[in-house]
Design a protein that fits this description.
Elements: H1 6-39, E1 57-60, E2 66-70, E3 74-75, H2 85-95, H3 107-119, H4 130-139, H5 146-162, H6 165-175, E4 182-183, H7 185-193, H8 202-209, H9 224-240, H10 246-253, H11 270-284, H12 286-291, E5 295-298, H13 302-323, E6 356-365, E7 368-373, E8 376-380, H14 393-396, E9 402-412, E10 415-421, E11 426-434, E12 440-444, E13 461-463, H15 469-478, E14 486-489, E15 508-511, H16 512-517, H17 521-531, H18 533-542, E16 561-563, H19 564-571, E17 579-581, E18 586-590, E19 596-599, E20 604-606, H20 610-626, E21 640-645, E22 651-657, E23 661-669, H21 681-696, H22 712-719
Parallel strand pairs: 1-5, 3-4, 8-10
Antiparallel strand pairs: 1-2, 5-18, 6-7, 6-9, 7-8, 9-10, 11-12, 11-23, 13-16, 14-15, 17-20, 18-19, 21-22, 22-23
Helix pairs in contact: 2-8, 2-9, 4-5, 4-6, 8-9, 9-10, 13-21, 15-17, 15-18, 15-20, 17-18, 20-22
C-alpha cells in the first residue's frame, strides 16, 4: 500500500484545521447572533439588585396602627429564613432537584425538552429551573415558545452569575403565584393555613410546593382531590431525594389537606379607606397606589372609629325596635335557592361577637330559632325576640328567611347566641373631625358596607331641616343682631307662603337665643327675610357648602340638601373662632423605604370674624344646655350643636362639637321614606352622637371653648327658657 507523502499529510491536516476553525467560527458567530437576537430588549440583570416586587400599600391610623391596605397582588416579603427548611426542600424536590449545583439551566432537562419539542412539532416542553422560572416571572411573558425558553436560559445564567443561591430562592419564594390572589409563599401560607411560611409542617409545605406548576389546576379550594394528588407527588419526590423518611411520607400522604383559610375581616373603616384610595389615586395614580408598597399615615383614630361603628349600629337597632317588627323577610327557598347553597354578602368577611349581620333561618321551633352566618351556627331564644311582640319562633320566622341578628359573646354548646334585630333599610352616617387640624377622626357611611358601598357621609346630599339655621343666624348677627334681641314667634305670611312651627303653636316674644335653642321656625324665617335670602346663601357658601341653593325663603328652615361632610366642616368653624379648616384624610405618604413623598398641611381660611363666631357659640351652646339637644348636657362637658328634622320625618340630624372635636350624625332612608312619627333629630340622631362624643371627650375634662371667657349670655337665655327640656327638631 503506497504511503502518503509527509508534505501531503501536512497539507490535509492544515485543511482540516482550517475547516474546524471555520466551523467553530460559524458556531460562535451563530451563537453570538442568537444571543444578540434573543437578548434584544431583555432587562439588565443589575436592575434586579434594585428590584422591588409589587407590594401592599398599608394605611395607618394616627397612632401607627394598621387600618387597611391596597394591593393588586397579595404579597408578604420575607427573607431566606422566612421559608421553613422543609418548604425549601419540598420546592427543590418537585421543581429543581439540581438547584444547588446547576448554573442557571439544567442541560439534560433542556435537551430532553428540545427533543420533545422536535417530536411535537414545536410545542414547548417545560424544563425550567427555579432560576429560569424566576427570570420568566420577573421579566418575560407566560407564552410557551422556544424563543421565550432561550431568553429564560440567557437571563437565568446572568442571574446565577450575579446572585447567590439563597438570594435566588428568596426572590423566587417571594415572587411566585400560588393561587387565590396570593403571591409568594408567605402570603399563601397565611391565607391557606393562617400561619407564617417559617412555621409550615411537612404536609402544608408539600401542598404549597405543588402549586407553582398549576395554581388553578391544583387549587385546594377548587380541586381538592387534584391538590392532594399533587401534594403526594411532592412527598414522593422528597422521599426519593432522601429528604424525608418513608414513614414521614406515608403519614403525610394519608393526612387531609388541613386548610385553615384566613377569612378576611371587614375593614374597621371601609368608607374611610375608600375615600383615601380615591385621594391617593388622584395624586399618585392607580399603579403606584396598588403596587408600590406605600406607607400612608391617615388621620383616622382607630379607637374612635370603632366607637363610631358601634354607635351607628346600636343607634339604628334602637330605632328599629321603636319602629316595631314588620315581618317583611326575604326567603331564599321561595326564590329557588337551597338552604345549603345560599351565601349572603355579609358572610364574605369574618364576623365576631358584637357584630350585626344577616343570618339565614335553618330551624324554627316555638321556643328556639336556629340560623347560620356562613358556617357559624347561631341560636335565638324567646327573650332574644321578645321585643317583636311574638311569642312563638315558628310564628315569627320560617326556614330560609333572611334575618338580621346581633351576635353575643354567649355560647350554647357549639352555637353562638344572638338577639333578633331588624333591617328595614334605615341608614345612618357619622363623621367626626379634629377642630384644629381638620383631621377626619372617624367616618361611617352606612349600616352595612357589604351591601352598600355608597358613602352617605360624603356623597349623599340630604335636606338639612333646622340644622341649616346656624347659617341664617350667622347672617343675622353679621347684620347686627344680638342674642338677647327680642323677636316675635307668631303667625305670619310671606306673600303666598304661610309657615308654621314644628309644634303648631306660637311662643310670642322671645330672645334670639331661646328661639334658636328651641328651634322655632317663624323667627328663623323672619331673620332670613330681614337680611335677605341671597345674604343667607352667600354666608352658607362661605362656610364651604357647595350645594346649589335656590333663592327662596323656605331654605331658612332647611329646604336645602347638603352632605354631612360639608355640614361637619361648617359647624367646626364656630368653636374655631371663625376659622374653617378643610377636612383631610391623609397626613403623610412615604414610599416603601420610608422616604416622604407627600405631606398634607391643613387648609385654613377665615369664614367669619371672631366676634360673630363667639356670638353664635352662645346660641349653639344654649341648644345643648336647655334646648332641643338638652340631653347632651348629661355628658357634663362644654358642648354646642343643633338638631335637624325634615318634613314628614324623612331626615334626622344632629351636629355638634366639644372644644376639640366636631361630629355630625344623619339618620334616614335612601328611599326618603318617613322614619316614623316623632322620629326627630333629637330622638334618632342625638343618642348616636352622644355615644360617640362620650368617647371623644374622655380624658379631656379641663378643655374649654375659646369663647368661655363670657358665659353671661347663656345664663340670661336660660332664665327665659322653659323649665323642662324640649324634644323637637
Amino acid at each position: 500500500m503506497p504511503t502518503v507523502p509527509r508534505r501531503s499529510r501536512r497539507k490535509l491536516a492544515g485543511r482540516f484545521t482550517l475547516a474546524v476553525l471555520l466551523m467553530l467560527a460559524v458556531i460562535t458567530g451563530s451563537l453570538a447572533g442568537l444571543t444578540l437576537v434573543y437578548s434584544v430588549n431583555l432587562p439588565q440583570i443589575n436592575d434586579l439588585e434594585h428590584y422591588r416586587p409589587s407590594t401592599t400599600t398599608e394605611l395607618y391610623d394616627v397612632k401607627g396602627r394598621v387600618i387597611g391596605s391596597f394591593a393588586l397582588e397579595r404579597r408578604e416579603i420575607v427573607d431566606y429564613d422566612g421559608f421553613s427548611p422543609i418548604l425549601r426542600q419540598a420546592v427543590i424536590s418537585i421543581e429543581d432537584k439540581s438547584f444547588e449545583s446547576h448554573w442557571g439551566i439544567n442541560v439534560f432537562r433542556v435537551a430532553g425538552a428540545a427533543w420533545h419539542d422536535i417530536r411535537s412539532h414545536g410545542r414547548a416542553q417545560g424544563a425550567s429551573t427555579l432560576t429560569m422560572q424566576l427570570a420568566r416571572n420577573l421579566f418575560l411573558s407566560s407564552e410557551r415558545t422556544s424563543t421565550r425558553k432561550i431568553q429564560e436560559a440567557y437571563l437565568a445564567i446572568q442571574i446565577e452569575r450575579a446572585f447567590t443561591k439563597e438570594q435566588i430562592f428568596t426572590l423566587y419564594g417571594n415572587q411566585i403565584y400560588l393561587g387565590s390572589g396570593m403571591y409568594g409563599f408567605e402570603a399563601a401560607s397565611q391565607y391557606y393555613f393562617s400561619k407564617h411560611a417559617k412555621d409550615l409542617n411537612l404536609t402544608e409545605a408539600a401542598l404549597l410546593a405543588g402549586l407553582p406548576k398549576g395554581p388553578v389546576a391544583f387549587s385546594p379550594l377548587l380541586y381538592p382531590e387534584k391538590a392532594i394528588r399533587r401534594r403526594n407527588l411532592v412527598l414522593t419526590e422528597m422521599e426519593d431525594d432522601k429528604a424525608i423518611t418513608h414513614q414521614q411520607a406515608e403519614q403525610a400522604r394519608n393526612a387531609p389537606l388541613g386548610l385553615h383559610i384566613a377569612q378576611p375581616e371587614m375593614s374597621v373603616a371601609p368608607w374611610f379607606q375608600e375615600e383615601v384610595r380615591r385621594e391617593l389615586e388622584k395624586r399618585f395614580g392607580s399603579e403606584q397606589v396598588h403596587e408600590a408598597g406605600l406607607k400612608v399615615q391617615t388621620t383616622l383614630d382607630l379607637d374612635l372609629q370603632q366607637t363610631a361603628n358601634r354607635a351607628v349600629a346600636d343607634g339604628l337597632a334602637t330605632y328599629e325596635r321603636r319602629k316595631g317588627w314588620t315581618g317583611k323577610l326575604e326567603n331564599v327557598v321561595s326564590e329557588g335557592t337551597s338552604l345549603t347553597d345560599y351565601k349572603h354578602p355579609d358572610w364574605a368577611v369574618k364576623s365576631k361577637p358584637g357584630d350585626y349581620v344577616h343570618a339565614m333561618v335553618t330551624t324554627d321551633l316555638p321556643l328556639e330559632i336556629e340560623a347560620r352566618v356562613g358556617d357559624q351556627q347561631i341560636v335565638i331564644l324567646p327573650e332574644d325576640w321578645k321585643w317583636t311582640g311574638q311569642h312563638s319562633g315558628s310564628e315569627l320566622v320560617r326556614p330560609g328567611d333572611i334575618i338580621y341578628v346581633h351576635l353575643t359573646d354567649a355560647m350554647i354548646g357549639k352555637e353562638r347566641r344572638a338577639t333578633l334585630e331588624q333591617d328595614s333599610g334605615a341608614e345612618g352616617s357619622l363623621m367626626a373631625i379634629d377642630n384644629t387640624t381638620g383631621d377626619i377622626l372617624a367616618m361611617v357611611g352606612g349600616r352595612d358596607y357589604s351591601l352598600s358601598q355608597f358613602n352617605r357621609a360624603t356623597q349623599s346630599e340630604r335636606q338639612t331641616g333646622s340644622s341649616f339655621k346656624p347659617y341664617v343666624y350667622t347672617a343675622a348677627i353679621e347684620a347686627g343682631a344680638k342674642p338677647d334681641d327680642i323677636i316675635v314667634d307668631g303667625p305670619v305670611s310671606f306673600g303666598g307662603y304661610t309657615p308654621h312651627n314644628y309644634e303648631n303653636d306660637y311662643k310670642g316674644a322671645m330672645t334670639l337665643t331661646s328661639a334658636f335653642a328651641e328651634s322655632r321656625n317663624i323667627p328663623a324665617l323672619k331673620l332670613a327675610a330681614r337680611v335677605g335670602i341671597h345674604k343667607v346663601i352667600d354666608v352658607t357658601h362661605r362656610f364651604g357648602v357647595t350645594s346649589n341653593i335656590p333663592a327662596y325663603l323656605p331654605i331658612a328652615i332647611g329646604a336645602v340638601e347638603i352632605t354631612l361632610e360639608e355640614q361637619v366642616a361648617s359647624y367646626a368653624v364656630f368653636p374655631n373662632d371663625g376659622i374653617r379648616v378643610a377636612p383631610r384624610l391623609i397626613r403623610k405618604v412615604s414610599n416603601a423605604d420610608g422616604i416622604a413623598l407627600w405631606e398634607d398641611a391643613p387648609a385654613v381660611n377665615e369664614v367669619i370674624d371672631q366676634q360673630t363666631a363667639r356670638t353664635m357659640m352662645t346660641l349653639l351652646r344654649a341648644v345643648t344646655k336647655f334646648g332641643t339637644g338638652a340631653a347632651a348636657s348629661q355628658l357634663n362637658h362644654p358642648l354646642g350643636g343643633k338638631t335637624g328634622t325634615t318634613s314628614d320625618y324623612t331626615d334626622a340630624w344632629f351636629l355638634g362639637f366639644s372644644p376639640s372635636v366636631t361630629c355630625g350624625v344623619w339618620v334616614g332612608y335612601d328611599s326618603r321614606q318617613s322614619l316614623g312619627e316623632k322620629e326627630t333629630g333629637a330622638k334618632a340622631a342625638l343618642p348616636i352622637w352622644m355615644t360617640f362624643m362620650k368617647a371623644a371627650i374622655a380624658g379631656k375634662d379641663s378643655e374649654k371653648f375659646l369663647s368661655d371667657s363670657d358665659d353671661s349670655d347663656i345664663q340670661k337665655a336660660k332664665a327665659d327658657a322653659p323649665q323642662k327640656p324640649l324634644v323637637n327638631p
